[in-house]
Design the sequence.
């Protein structure tokens, strides 16, 4: 996973390096993009494509655009008016290094630039570009990720049921994870039937990712995570463990992992990197 | 101008009304979109198209997307971390009615939804969609409007030359105005040569718009403007009048108006609504 992330990082950074824009804006955009992370979404795009095709150059613009959108969402999420976080992955957040105005604008710029990258990629046909932009704007906009953010903020001040929690996650983080898998497989030439099973796979993978996040906030290693643990409990946040207990949460994790594997099987996919990613996410320690 | 804005407003609002999203997010998006404004950009898209074609249904998604992007930029611009404005057009700003987090997210949602609207419009071909999205993302992203915002903030703490002022305006407001005219004419079927002259027209129109804005901040009617005058001088902001005096600024205004008319002439366009808009903007009182 780390090797794949490193190869991809060069492509991603290059999209920003070539920009001829005000230096403060560029530095701020680059800071958060280079701050790292697991690159789960781009790796999912590429891995889903590789189930069907070899030459991955068709996937790079979409994988990069997706990571830019993920990065913008983190920058805005960390703002004082939102989660008010000073650190992310052990590094100062964007608005702490620069200032709030710059952080807001860097986020806006990353989001907008994501669509430019796709619209200008010569490796894609116009039909593909339009399909990608339709799906990406849906997944990241008011019906998808932004809806999840609003619901998540509202959930902070009330207790939510497990169903509501799943709805929040399916929008806040699930929408982009679904997009990753769907679009990689689409570009690779997956059949309609395979795309449906892959949507089932990615829905379970997204929830798996989230439940493990909640579990790590209780039993994780602060150094590996790059952030303090116990923050969910401190904020009295509804999580899988708070609703189901730690044992119950682990049971859900194992169920999601199994359902994800089954969905891949139904799509006729075995022994692929996607199968491996399920285990990676279920057992990740950061 | 007001009649045209009213007809367009219904189309614009409908794009938001059909969204099935969390109610707070929808209310916040609708609040700022309905807060009004002159709808200069969408009217320019439609008027530029009408120079060449009659049935304007091809322009509605782009005109709407553009106004959503303009609206998002105002919401973010008004935030405490940016211009910290409590009122716009005589109404409370988004973050004063809702809260900062919601205002940030409403802006993000409007920006993202703009691309979805274009990508899903059945009146456009895929070639047109890709071209529109390329141009719109350039005009509103890190090379265009967002660059202008950063430069504008930086200019607050130092004195700038007239050339620097023009660069800021050409990005902060000019990029979207250029896009409006260019894309309307493109969809209408303008020739390459006409598009070049229309770019010259819109560059002058954008600066005309801005110099009149600066002039109105000195000699405008507070009631008609819906905001107090004299704020530029109070903030010691570099403007056309501060650099050239009021008389000099008016001279620039008249020059821009004349250059804009000449550019239309060179494109072979006379007696159109675009010709009328030059006068409207040069003599507007709000």
Sequence:
């Amino acid at each position: 996973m780390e090797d794949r992330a490193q190869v991809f990082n060069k492509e991603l950074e290059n999209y920003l390096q070539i920009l001829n824009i005000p230096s403060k804006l560029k530095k701020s955009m680059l800071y958060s993009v280079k701050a790292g992370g697991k690159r789960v979404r781009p790796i999912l795009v590429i891995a889903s494509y590789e189930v069907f095709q070899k030459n991955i150059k068709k996937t790079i613009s979409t994988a990069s655009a997706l990571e830019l959108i993920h990065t913008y969402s983190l920058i805005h999420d960390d703002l004082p008016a939102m989660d008010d976080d000073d650190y992310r992955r052990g590094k100062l957040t964007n608005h702490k290094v620069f200032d709030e105005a710059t952080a807001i604008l860097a986020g806006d710029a990353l989001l907008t630039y994501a669509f430019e990258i796709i619209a200008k990629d010569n490796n894609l046909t116009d039909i593909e570009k339009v399909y990608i932009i339709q799906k990406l704007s849906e997944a990241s906009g008011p019906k998808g990720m932004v809806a999840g953010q609003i619901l998540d903020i509202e959930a902070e001040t009330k207790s939510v049921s497990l169903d509501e929690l799943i709805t929040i996650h399916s929008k806040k983080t699930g929408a982009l994870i679904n997009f990753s898998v769907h679009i990689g497989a689409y570009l690779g030439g997956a059949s309609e039937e395979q795309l449906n099973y892959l949507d089932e796979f990615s829905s379970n993978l997204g929830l798996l990712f989230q439940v493990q996040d909640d579990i790590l906030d209780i039993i994780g290693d602060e150094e590996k995570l790059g952030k303090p643990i116990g923050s969910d409990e401190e904020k009295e946040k509804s999580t899988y463990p708070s609703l189901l207990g730690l044992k119950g949460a682990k049971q859900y994790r194992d169920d999601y992992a199994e359902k994800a594997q089954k969905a891949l099987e139904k799509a006729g996919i075995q022994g692929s990197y996607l199968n491996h990613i399920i285990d990676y996410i279920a057992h990740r320690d950061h």
Chain B has 15 helices and two strands.
